[in-house]
């Protein structure tokens, strides 16, 4: 318990992160959440399902990352948290499985983007919002 109290104490140094670096880490957790909106035309009731799904996904993602932050803050010394970007892999019981999970989640996010982006572009093209995209409207939307 003493380690988490020391890590929560304000102690700025030249390695301190800015708001934008912390935001970049936190924002990456929500990129997969946004993939659900790209699949909205598969839903029976998108007006109800999208807000409930998005808010639920954001709540779950926030709880997971906050618990991860508290867990690392209570296990690892501040110097390692600041300097070592893969400290979670090093303190993990099975570091190899941690890295596999990291790569699989990145691959999953990439595949979700590859599937969702053409659907969004085709929907924009079918509505005629951007005239140059009209040839892309051909197909099933």
Automatic annotation (TrEMBL):
The keyword Transmembrane applies. The keyword Transmembrane applies. One of its GO terms (biological process) is cell volume homeostasis. Pfam families: AA_permease. GO terms for molecular function: potassium:chloride symporter activity. It is found in: Membrane. Residues 16-131 form the Amino acid permease/ SLC12A domain. Keywords: Membrane, Transmembrane, Transmembrane helix. The chain crosses the membrane at residues 20-40, 52-76, 96-116. One of its GO terms (cellular component) is membrane. It is a multi-pass membrane protein. InterPro entries: AA-permease/SLC12A_dom, SLC12A_fam. PANTHER family: SOLUTE CARRIER FAMILY 12 MEMBER 8, SOLUTE CARRIER FAMILY 12, CATION COTRANSPORTERS. This is Amino acid permease/ SLC12A domain-containing protein.
